[in-house]
Design brief:
Layout (H helix, E strand, L loop, with lengths): L7 H11 L3 E6 L6 H12 L3 H14 L1 E7 L1 H12 L15 E6 L3
Antiparallel strand pairs: 1-2, 1-3
Length: 107
């Protein structure tokens, strides 16, 4: 109808429906302990210890785990935080941070 406006709540809902989402995917390696993964995920993403431990199991058994799903800017920031976390002091063979990627979340 000419002259009508869309309510702010409706505009916000439409924008949210169109915002693409991305996964932050943690990748497995043999240079980090479960304790490291749990510590990192609780500190960076504020996950509970139980949730972080489940991610540690999943990344170890399947090679990857989706840590969070969010907008691109936040996903890239989360990936960068993982990359900057550093080596696992519990493992002398650990030379650096774990790897993570950002990938589109498919509907």
């Amino acid at each position: 109808m000419p002259g009508t406006t869309t309510a702010p709540e409706k505009r916000a809902a439409n924008r949210d429906e169109l915002t693409p989402l991305y996964h932050v995917v943690l990748l497995d390696d043999d240079q980090h302990t479960y304790d490291y993964v749990v510590e990192m995920l609780t500190k960076i993403f504020f996950l509970s210890t139980e949730s972080a431990f489940q991610h540690a199991i999943e990344v170890d058994t399947t090679g990857r785990t989706i840590v969070i799903t969010c907008e691109l800017r936040e996903a890239e920031f989360g990936r960068d935080q993982i990359h900057a976390y550093g080596a696992d002091p519990r493992m002398p063979a650990s030379k650096g941070s774990m790897s993570a990627i950002v990938e589109p979340a498919r509907a």
